[in-house]
Structure formats: structure tokens, C-alpha cells
Write a structure and sequence with these properties.
The complex is a heterotrimer. By secondary structure, chain B is mainly α. Helices cover 75% and strands 3% of the residues of chain B. The radius of gyration of chain B is 27 Å and the shape is globular. Chain C has a domain at 125-161. In chain C, helix 1 (2-20) runs antiparallel to helix 2 (24-44) and helix 2 packs antiparallel against helix 3. The chains are: A mainly alpha, B mainly alpha, C mainly alpha.
């Protein structure tokens, strides 16, 4: 059953490339929209039990060993939403027929890769699907074929290659130490406490690889270039979900439920998280391009998630999952806003575009929602997840980290307010002429994502009680 | 059924506020007035009832739990009263102004949040509504016009920072008490307990606008719409901040007279009185002068509650409600002057008393109240505070008396400049809709003064419960010396004013000799340049820090960049090959990072 | 042991040559040579099947494709060749220093712990592993090839601006 999440996009990909004349970009677009929204709705509607309790007889025929738990459910939902948004944005930013057809195909590859990454239960398969996602994104990033995009892609490619080397080496150590690569076997090896030196070595290497994939300081070199030089729709995809699934989700999955860590690893991960939070937040102050600023803010927010994962208590992991979801949503929102600006003005340089509040009302209001949520202002969704992370840190007696996380959120608010003021709130005397040139697709995405951000924020207590707290027992 | 009413206090104004954004613009004001009167009626109905209400909310022991008792009912009654008056006043004041579009929505939503914060019986619920008020505060300031954005951000950051302290305090309190239910918490003031106390008090007095969290208020007086000033800093925030301060000192923690924290609170109070009133004395703008007094009077309340004596606490709470009455009234007279004369600059005003007699009358009563003239309400609450302060230490009493002297002096200056003196121009009296709230407030001041037994015995003394049982705090103070000193001080203020006017030439220059006094003039100059404003200094510091970190970042970049560049230069002397190679820097970063991680793992 | 050391040093040398040389053809030959030595090492590590794969795909198939591609290119002039070679040599001159410093650091600070290798798992036939145990990875292979095809389409089939 679960395997359908991987097979259906794959089959759709194959079908779209059959040599029939009527299979053009238009058909591909609508089919993909249906597929992505179906995935999102399916996850929303179906309770967990409908999926995991399929008849045992059926299980014997499934040749793939997958697992599906509430965490994977949240991930599948997030993936579907962000990929859908990226597709809608691409419809209005990519103009040529041929190119948008290729875009959709590659998006399907990326979707397959990400879905599979979420569902696999084997560390090597995990690596394979992470690479598939990465390869699809490399091509997507370079789809514009201008000099900067290719440069950004190249940087991502090279760094990603280093990550692959680290991860592959680490996998070799795992097979040496555990004899098998499935999650359960590795977990057992940790519990049996044998070959602990080898395992630690393997974890260290794996961590290095994952840090590059997550883009945390000091492994972040590729992030600003890749996020800001890529095509808008690809920025949404890359910043919104790809780095998160290939980096953070894997970190979360492995380090919360597969590996059994000793204390110093927790400290290491938390340290990296805190460095990212502070360094990137300060770096964001001095950016004059919106997309670059958003990239640095992304690094900083990822720092929060990494910090929470490092803390490792159930509450912290819960906070990390929530912040993952929220951040995916509101960072996509902000990149969609950037796409709207780029579409209208052909630039995202803050010195050029000022005083847009009256011209782009939807964009300006939704960006305010996104920014405030990023900064953790109640009652938006970002507030709750940050609150839970900070409470978890204090509960775990990590007072220093807790305070730094708390104070850094003020910094976030400050640099975003600078940005918001520059772009939207200053009233210019000579406002550029012309009506609201933002296409409907982008507006729809903005409203959808802002609605999710506000909705999750307002309904948070109820969501927490009825849905998310049920996760806690199933995380381990 | 009756539990539903308590929820109604939160839900009704919130939905009404959102709804009013959809309504046609002309109806919004009337709609707000109707809804705030409904809210007032509910508050009256619920007053003196004891109710609790709770439903599961966020897990982790965080229930959405509300509790109505005597104290919270009293605060809600007062807040809804002011909400009603201000929306009535705004009907005419904001007519045709751009800011009227959103103002009513904000006022209704604020009422809802205030009700929620006051009713909350769970610290997290309290915090939720408390922080939500930041949003409406931000919105209300920002609709004030071009200058307002900066001020609104300043207010947001100051309040946000102190609310962060409060959040930390809530977490710590919850951790220490093992519960978040306010009614169940009673903590000793040991080391961690004191820390939690300080953090929570920071939030409370910052909401009330005490020094050093006050600096946005005078800025807002210039930028924000006037009804905001009359509603938020003058009334609602005082009610809320002092309410929470009283709850902290009375219920959450057992503060007593021996505690050093009690003295700390009193010192903060005394400093607030003196610093703010000194600033108020030299202001040359009606609204700004009032705003400094709004800060200064908080000092009395904090001082009163900080004494930990029944008389002081009752005086503090009584002063809170009195202050809300007369300061709200004073701001409204300011609004009337602004509406009719088009300015609040003292240099351009004069002789308004004849053309606006009712406004002048309201001003006289409220100004007499704030200066503590018998038999208005301010006199009685101040006497209670003096009594308690004198018992705790002469220095506090002196500070309070000095503050009283300066308050009287600055209001003599204000009244003299605006309402007396040369008649420069003929103005009309303010419209009836604006006069009604002012007159109501002025009469309430008189009633609370002459019949002070009424509020003290009905509203305030029951809050303290058995601690104040058997005492009688109404009427003239037992220690008659206090009254004599007060009268002497007030007479001195009069005398000082007339001599100063004669000497300095003109009522507006009545405080010039203080302004120009040797040491004070320097301090004043610094204050005017905002050197003494923690927020401005902090922002400068953060900017510098950001610059430094940016430099460091650039420096590292430069180090890597030019290290590679120079190596390449030195060894290859091929310049144009460099651009392609920058990704190597990122690789080096990552490898250095990986090296660090691995050496950490293998150590 | 000695033969392993020789093989490893040969691997290193040929890899360096592959990177350093200026002629593309030399580079391709170097790559093939490196792959061949790697295949020998893999063979010595008791994985004959993997060695055969490495030899046939990396040093055989890929080299053929590369050489075909290189045959479409043009030679550069003699003078430019000399200049280029000099530049190239100079550019990599600091490489040995970095390698030495990195090596010193590794030896000095990264104390690689001594551990005894666990007994290797029972030897299973690689075909068994591939077809019976790792279906998902095969699916992944298929998808990654498709992604590669799209890469080629995007880069080379779309008309340039």
C-alpha cells in the first residue's frame, strides 16, 4: 500500500514520456496537480490505522520493505504541499512549453525520491533516494541555463559530492559493524553495544555528510548561492523541502529512532545548531538581496531544528518536527513572495524595490505573516514550535542553549522588520506605475500558505492535543 | 450557562473586532460603541461572582482555564468601562481620519485580549493573551501616520523583550511550582524563586510602563492616535500591569516586608516617580507632558505595592484605578484641545479656558486629582501610599512627596499655559460626544474622592481578604501629619509656580530654572538626545555588533578568499583564472568542519 | 602486504597524473588506469564480481565514451599549450604543501583508534543480494537513470538562448 507513494509518481513519469502527441505540458501540469493534491488530501483524510493495518496476507506480496509512521505522514503532507506550490509558481515563471514539460518531469522524479526517502527502512536505500532527489534538483536548478544558476548548481553539486563521499564511507563502516543496513539491525547493533568505536566513527562521518546536506554553519557555503541563484520555483522547492528532507528528515529519523547516542554527540549537534542560529541570523542583517536574506534566515531556522534534534528529549524531537513543518510552510511562502517580486520587477534587490505595500497587497500581507511566523510571534505557527523547542531545552537543563535560542529570535524579528519596512512599508513618492502584475497561481500559493500558517497557529492547541501528542508514543 | 458568559467576554469582542473590519466604514464606530457597551454590561453582570471555567487545551497540563474572582472581575469592569468611553470618544475624534478604518477593530480585539489575560488562571494562557496584546498595540500605533512605524517597532521590541523575560519567568515558575495554575501556585522566595519573581515582575512593570521600560510611551504620544494614548498607556496597560504585579506579590509569591525584593520594587517605584516627573516638567507638548506623567504615576503604584503593607497595597491598587480615571480624562482633554486648536504645542496655545469652559472644568478636576488635592480621588490613594512609604523608610516618603511637588508644579504650568493667559484666538467648545466621556471621568474622580469609602470598601479591600480585615482604609488618614505635609507641599508648588512665572517670564517657561540648573541641564540634554534610552542605546549596540560580525564574516571571507587568491597569485601569476575557483572556499569550510567533527568524535 | 602498498601508491600516482595532465586524452587514459588499479585492489579484497564491474564499466565503457568525445575536439596551438601547461603546473604547486599539512594534522590530532574488525558476514552471492534483497535500490537505479536522461535533455537538447 505504502509503496504507492513511490510507484504512482514513477508510473506517471513513465506515462508522460510515452511517445504520444497529446501528452504536452498542459496535460502534464494538470495530472501533476491532481497527483500532488491527492497525496496531500490522502494524508489528511486517512488515519494512521487505515494504512499500517493492511491485511497480513497482502504484506507478503510486497517486495519492498517500507515503514510508515506518523512522522512519515507529516513529511508526506509537507512534501505534497511544497511540491504543489513549486509547480504552481513554475507555471507562471517558466514560459517555454518544452522547458515546463521537463520541469514537471523532474519535479516528479524529485517527488518520487523524497517520498521514498521518507518511507525506506534501510540506510543504503535512504542514501540512494537522497541522491535521486539531489540529482533531480541539480538539473532543475540549471534549467534556466544562465551563468549564475549554473554556478550555484555547481557549488551545490561539489559540496553534495563531498556529502556523498562522507555518507558512503560511513555506510561502509555500518555494514562492517552491523552486517546489515536495515534500521532495525543497526538499532540492534547499537543496543548490543558491540563495535562501538566503529559505530561512532561511522556516525561522525554520517553527521558530516548530513550537515552539508542540511546546510548548517560551517557547512553552509553552498546555501546562499544555490537558493538565490536558482529559478524562483526551484528556490521554493529547494529551500522549502529538498534540503529539509535530504538533510534534516534523515538526521531526525536516524538520530531519534535508529542510532543510540552517547552524550557528547548531543552536545556536538546542539553546538552546530546554535552556531548556525547565531551566525546566520547576524549574516542576514547585511544582505541586500531578498533571496539571499531568506537563505541566511533559512540556515538560522534550520539551526533551531538541528538544536532540537541534538537535545534529543521526546519533547524536543516533537518541537523539531513541528518546526520542520512550520518552517517548510513559511519559508516556501517567503520564497513565493520573492518570486512574485521577481516576476513583477525582474529583481530581488532591496535597494531597487521599495514601497510596494500599496501595489502588491496580497504579497505584502502574506509576507508579513511569513516573517512574523519566522520570528516566532504569537499566535502564528512559528511561535508554537519555537516555544516547544525552548521549553524542551529548559526542561533538559540546557539553559545556555535555551537562552541563546530565545535571544536569537529577537534578532530574526529585527532583520525581517528591516526588510519588511524597506520593501513594503516605505511610502515612495513616485510609485512605479502599473497594476498588480502578480499571476493568479502565485497569489493562490501565497494565500494558501499564509492560511496554513495562520490556521496552524490559531488551531495549534487543538492540533497538538488531538493529533501531535499521539505521535509521541510512536516516535520510538 | 453562567460559565458561557465568562467565555463570551473573550469571544464576543474578538469576533466583533474582526467583523468590524468587514462592515462599511461608517458603521464601524457605532458598532464598536454598541459592542463595548454590551461588554460593559456583561462585566457588570459578572462582577462579584466567583466562577471557574476550564477545558483541555494544549496538553502538558496546559488547560484553557479561566477564573473569575473579585479582583479580576473588578479589573474587567474597569477595562470595559474605559473601552466604552474611548470608543465613544473616538467616534468624533477620528471622524474622517484615515486611522479610523482599523482603530475600532483594534480596540475591540484589545478588550478581548485584556479580558482573556485578566481571567486566565493558567500562566501560559495569561502569557498568550498578554503577548497577543503586543499585536494590537503595534497596530494601533502604526496607523498613526508616517512617523509611527519607528515608534511602533520600538514599542514592540521593548515590550517584546520584557515579555520574553516574562516568558522565561513563566517557564521557571511552572518548573518550580510543578503546576501552571495560578490559583495553585505559592512559591517561597529562594534563589530560583527570586529569579522567577524578578522575571515575572519585569513583564508586569514593563506593561505598566515603569522605568526603564517606558521610553516608547513619550514617542508614541507624538506618533500614535490620541485615543490610543488614553486607552493603552493611560488605562489598560496600567490596569493589566498593576493587576499582574499585585497577583505576583500577593498570590504567586509570598513577598513580605523583610525581603530585599520588596526594597528593590520600592526603589524602582521611587526612581520612576522622580525620573519621569523631572522629564515631564520640561516638556513643551501637551500630550508628551501627559505621557511622562503616565509613567511617573506608575511609580506610586509600584512603590505602594512594593511596601508589602496593607495600606500600601490598597493605596497602590486604588491609585491604579484613580490614575486610569484622571489620566484617561487628561488625555481626552488633550484630544479636545488638539481637535479644536489643531495643535498640542504649548507655545502656540493659550487662553482656551474661556472658549472651552467644559474642557477646562474637566481639566481642572483631573489635574487636581493627579496633584493630590483634597477632596479628589488622587489625594486619598496618595495618602495611603505615603503612609506605607513612611513606615518603610523616610527616603521613599521623601521621593513620593518630591514627585507630588513636581507633579503639581508641572500641571500648574500646563493649565496656566493652555487655559489661562492671553486669548490669542477664539475656538469652539469640543463636540458633545467628546465631552460626555470627559465629564463622566471627571465626575467619577469626584465621586471616588468624596465618597472614597465606596470604591475602597467595595472594590479594593476585598482583594486583600483576611490580610486587611479589621482595618479601615477609607476616609482621612489616621496620621494627620501626612495631610499637613501634603497641604504644605501643594502650597509650596503654588508659590513656586507664581515666583517662577514672574522670574522666568511666562507660564510656559515656569520650569526653565530647573531645566537650566547646572547638573540637571546636562542630564536633560542627554535625555533629549536619547543617550539615556536603553532601547536606542541597545539598537546602536546591536547595529555595531552586527557591523562587527559582518566585518568578521567578511574578514574570514577575505582571509579564505585572499589566502587562496594570494597562493594562486604567488604560485601561478594567472589572474583571470581565479573567478571560477571560489567554490573551493566552501569546500575548505566544509572540510575544516568535518575535521573538527571527526576529531570531536575520536577524541 | 607489499603488493597492496605498491598498488595503493600506484593508484595515488595515477590519480594525481589524471588531474595534473593537460591533455584530455592523457587524462582519460589516466582515469582508465586508475580504475584498473582500483579493480585490482577490489579483486584482492575478495570481490571478484565487483572488480569485473569496475574494470568493464569504469575503465572500459566510460573510457571509450570519453575518447569518442575527445576525438571531436581540436588541438590547441603549440605556444598556448606551453603557456597552459606552465599555468597548470603553477596552479597545483601548493597542492603538495596542503597534502603534507593535512596529513600532519590528521596524524597529530585525529588519533584513529585501533579496533579489531568484526568477522565478516557470511558471504552471499552478489546476484542474490542484488535481485532478491535490494529491489528498492534497483528501482532507485532506474529512476536515477531517468533523471540523468532529463539532465541530458535539458542541457543539450533544448535550444540555447
Amino acid at each position: 500500500m505504502v509503496v504507492l507513494f513511490i510507484l504512482i509518481p514513477f508510473v506517471l513519469l513513465l506515462v508522460l514520456n510515452l511517445p504520444f502527441k497529446f501528452l504536452n505540458a498542459r496535460i502534464a501540469f494538470w495530472l501533476s496537480v491532481v497527483l500532488f493534491s491527492t497525496q496531500a488530501l490522502f494524508v489528511l483524510i486517512n488515519s494512521l490505522f487505515a494504512w499500517s493495518n493492511y491485511p497480513a496476507v497482502l504484506g507478503q506480496f510486497l517486495i519492498f520493505k517500507l515503514w510508515l509512521d506518523p512522522l512519515a505522514f507529516i513529511m508526506l503532507f509537507t512534501i505534497a504541499i511544497v511540491v504543489l506550490v513549486s509547480l504552481l509558481v513554475a507555471r507562471s515563471t517558466i514560459t517555454t512549453e518544452k522547458r515546463s514539460f521537463n520541469f514537471i518531469n523532474l519535479l516528479l522524479v524529485a517527488l518520487t525520491g523524497m517520498n521514498a526517502t521518507v518511507l525506506v527502512a534501510d540506510i543504503f536505500s535512504l542514501y540512494v533516494f537522497v541522491e535521486i532527489t539531489a540529482v533531480a534538483v541539480f538539473v532543475l536548478m540549471a534549467i534556466e541555463k544562465n551563468k549564475f544558476a549554473i554556478e550555484g548548481t555547481f557549488k551545490y553539486l561539489v559540496l553534495s559530492m563531498f556529502a556523498s563521499v562522507f555518507i558512503l564511507t560511513s555506510i561502509a563502516f555500518f555494514i562492517l559493524a552491523c552486517g546489515d543496513l536495515s534500521f532495525s539491525e543497526i538499532h540492534n547493533a547499537f543496543l548490543a553495544n558491540s563495535n562501538i568505536i566503529l559505530l561512532n566513527f561511522a556516525i561522525g562521518l554520517f553527521l558530516c555528510g548530513l550537515f552539508i546536506k542540511c546546510g548548517v554553519v560551517p557547512f553552509h557555503g553552498w546555501v546562499p548561492d544555490a537558493y538565490s541563484e536558482a529559478q524562483s520555483a526551484v528556490s521554493v522547492l529547494l529551500a522549502g523541502i529538498v534540503t529539509k528532507i535530504t538533510g534534516i528528515y534523515v538526521l531526525m529519523r536516524l538520530f531519534s529512532s535508529v542510532f543510540v547516542l552517547k552524550g557528547s554527540f548531543h552536545n556536538l549537534i546542539m553546538l552546530i545548531g546554535v552556531i548556525s542560529i547565531v551566525f546566520a541570523a547576524l549574516a542576514a542583517f547585511r544582505q541586500d538581496n531578498i533571496k539571499r536574506m531568506l537563505s541566511y534566515s533559512s540556515i538560522s531556522q534550520v539551526g533551531y531544528i538541528v538544536l532540537a534534534i541534538g537535545c534529543g528529549t521526546p519533547l524536543a524531537i516533537l518541537g523539531a518536527i513541528l518546526h520542520f513543518f512550520n518552517h517548510a510552510i513559511f519559508k516556501s511562502l517567503l520564497f513565493v513572495n520573492a518570486a512574485a517580486l521577481e516576476k513583477k520587477f525582474g529583481s530581488t534587490d532591496m535597494s531597487i524595490i521599495t514601497g510596494l505595500g500599496s501595489q502588491l497587497p496580497v504579497t505584502s500581507v502574506t509576507s508579513l505573516v511569513g516573517l512574523l511566523s519566522t520570528a516566532g510571534i504569537p499566535p502564528l505557527s512559528g511561535f508554537w514550535s519555537k516555544l516547544i523547542i525552548i521549553i524542551a531545552l529548559f526542561n533538559a537543563q540546557q539553559f545556555t542553549y535555551g537562552w541563546i535560542a530565545l535571544l536569537a529570535s529577537v534578532l530574526t524579528l529585527a532583520y525581517f522588520l528591516f526588510m519588511e519596512r524597506n520593501i513594503f512599508l516605505i511610502k515612495t513618492e513616485t510609485a512605479p506605475e502599473g497594476s498588480d502584475g502578480v499571476p493568479f497561481g502565485i497569489k493562490f500559493c501565497e494565500i494558501l500558505l499564509a492560511a496554513i500558517t495562520i490556521g496552524v497557529g490559531l488551531g495549534f492547541p487543538f492540533i497538538l492535543n488531538s493529533q501531535i501528542l499521539q505521535l509521541k508514543g510512536l516516535l520510538y | 450557562m453562567i460559565e458561557a458568559f465568562i467565555l463570551l467576554l473573550i469571544i464576543l469582542p474578538l469576533f466583533a473586532g474582526v467583523l468590524s473590519l468587514i462592515l462599511p466604514r461608517l458603521w464601524r464606530g457605532a458598532f464598536a460603541v454598541i459592542l463595548s457597551s454590551v461588554n460593559f454590561l456583561i462585566a457588570v453582570y459578572l462582577f462579584k461572582k466567583e466562577l471557574t471555567f476550564s477545558f483541555p487545551w494544549a496538553g502538558f497540563g496546559i488547560d484553557f482555564s479561566l477564573r473569575l474572582n473579585h479582583f479580576s472581575g473588578f479589573i474587567i469592569l474597569a477595562a470595559s468601562f474605559f473601552g466604552l468611553l474611548i470608543s465613544l470618544y473616538a467616534l468624533n475624534f477620528l471622524k474622517g481620519k484615515d486611522s479610523a478604518k482599523q482603530f475600532y477593530a483594534y480596540i475591540l480585539i484589545s478588550i478581548s485580549f485584556v479580558n482573556g489575560a485578566v481571567l486566565a488562571n493558567n500562566l501560559v494562557v495569561l502569557l498568550f493573551f498578554w503577548e497577543a496584546l503586543l499585536l494590537t498595540q503595534y497596530g494601533m500605533i502604526v496607523i498613526g501616520g508616517r512617523l509611527a512605524f519607528r515608534t511602533a517597532t520600538k514599542a514592540l521590541i521593548i515590550s517584546g523583550a520584557s515579555d520574553l523575560c516574562m516568558m522565561a519567568g513563566v517557564i521557571l515558575t511552572g518548573y518550580l511550582a510543578k503546576t501552571l495554575l495560578i490559583s495553585d501556585i505559592s512559591l517561597p522566595l529562594d534563589l530560583l524563586g527570586s529569579l522567577a519573581f524578578i522575571l515575572l515582575v519585569t513583564g508586569a512593570i514593563s506593561k505598566a510602563g515603569s522605568v526603564p521600560f517606558h521610553t516608547w510611551i513619550p514617542d508614541a504620544a507624538e506618533a500614535a492616535p490620541l485615543p490610543f494614548m488614553a486607552f493603552f498607556p493611560a488605562a489598560i496597560e496600567k490596569l493589566l500591569g498593576i493587576y499582574f504585579l499585585a497577583r505576583i506579590t500577593l498570590d504567586l509569591f509570598k513577598l513580605n516586608t523583610n525581603s530585599i525584593l520588596s526594597s528593590v520594587l520600592m526603589i524602582i517605584g521611587a526612581l520612576t516617580i522622580i525620573i519621569a516627573v523631572m522629564m515631564a516638567l520640561i516638556q513643551k507638548d501637551y500630550k508628551k507632558l501627559l505621557s511622562y506623567h503616565a509613567i511617573s504615576q506608575v511609580g506610586y503604584m509600584v512603590l505602594g505595592i512594593g511596601t508589602c503593607l496593607p495600606a500600601g497595597i490598597i493605596g497602590g491598587i486604588f491609585h491604579m484605578i484613580n490614575h486610569a480615571l484622571y489620566k484617561c480624562g487628561l488625555f481626552l482633554t488633550g484630544g479636545a484641545v488638539e481637535k479644536q486648536a489643531g495643535t498640542t504645542d504649548l507655545a502656540k496655545l493659550g487662553g482656551l479656558g474661556l472658549s472651552m469652559p467644559i474642557t477646562f472644568f474637566c481639566f481642572l478636576i483631573t489635574a487636581a486629582s493627579i496633584s493630590g488635592v483634597w477632596p479628589f480621588n488622587g489625594f486619598f490613594s496618595k495618602e495611603l501610599i505615603y503612609d506605607a512609604a513612611l513606615e518603610r523608610g523616610k527616603i521613599f516618603y521623601l521621593a513620593a512627596i518630591l514627585g507630588s511637588f513636581l507633579t503639581a508644579a508641572s500641571f500648574l504650568k500646563l493649565g496656566h499655559t493652555v487655559f489661562l493667559g492671553k486669548v490669542s484666538q477664539k475656538y469652539k467648545e469640543a463636540p458633545v460626544l467628546m465631552l460626555i466621556p470627559m465629564v463622566i471621568l471627571a465626575f467619577t474622580c469626584i465621586i471616588f474622592g468624596v465618597f472614597n469609602r465606596l470604591p475602597i470598601n467595595n472594590f479594593i479591600q476585598p482583594i486583600l481578604g483576611i490580610r486587611a480585615a479589621g482595618h479601615n482604609f477609607s476616609g482621612m488618614p489616621a496620621n494627620f501629619m501626612l495631610v499637613i505635609v501634603t497641604v504644605i507641599v501643594l502650597l509650596a508648588a503654588f508659590l513656586h509656580h507664581f515666583i517662577a512665572v514672574r522670574m522666568n517670564g511666562g507660564a510656559i517657561r515656569a520650569a526653565e530654572h530647573i531645566h537650566q540648573a547646572p547638573v540637571l541641564s546636562t542630564i536633560y540634554r542627554w535625555a533629549e538626545k536619547k543617550y539615556l534610552d536603553p532601547y536606542e542605546v541597545g539598537i546602536k549596540l546591536i547595529n555595531k555588533l552586527a557591523k562587527i560580525f559582518w566585518r568578521i564574516d567578511r574578514g574570514i571571507d577575505w582571509l579564505y578568499g585572499s589566502l587562496i587568491v594570494n597562493l594562486t597569485f604567488a604560485f601561478s601569476r594567472v589572474i583571470h583564472k581565479i573567478q571560477a575557483g571560489y567554490y573551493i572556499i566552501y569546500v575548505i569550510w566544509s572540510l575544516v568542519g568535518a575535521f573538527a567533527v571527526m576529531s570531536f568524535v575520536l577524541r | 602486504m607489499a603488493i597492496d602498498l605498491i598498488l595503493l601508491s600506484a593508484l595515488l600516482l595515477s590519480a594525481i597524473w589524471t588531474v595534473m595532465t593537460i591533455r584530455l586524452v592523457h587524462s582519460v587514459v589516466g582515469l582508465a588506469l586508475t580504475s584498473a588499479i582500483l579493480a585490482a585492489i577490489i579483486y584482492r579484497l575478495d570481490s571478484p564480481l565487483a572488480a569485473v564491474f569496475e574494470l568493464s564499466v569504469c575503465s572500459g565503457l566510460i573510457s571509450v565514451i570519453f575518447i569518442t568525445t575527445v576525438s571531436f575536439t581540436q588541438r590547441i596551438s603549440k605556444e598556448r599549450f606551453i603557456v597552459r601547461r606552465k599555468e597548470r603546473l603553477l596552479r597545483f604547486l601548493y597542492l603538495p604543501f596542503i597534502v603534507i599539512i593535512a596529513g600532519l594534522l590528521l596524524v597529530r590530532y585525529l588519533r584513529i583508534p585501533q579496533f579489531s574488525l568484526p568477522l565478516s558476514a557470511q558471504v552471499t552471492d552478489v546476484r542474490l543480494v542484488l535481485w532478491n534483497m535490494r529491489h528498492l535500490d534497483l528501482l532507485g537505479q532506474a529512476i536515477i537513470i531517468i533523471a540523468g536522461v532529463f539532465g541530458v535533455v535539458v542541457f543539450f537538447k533544448e535550444p540555447n538562448k
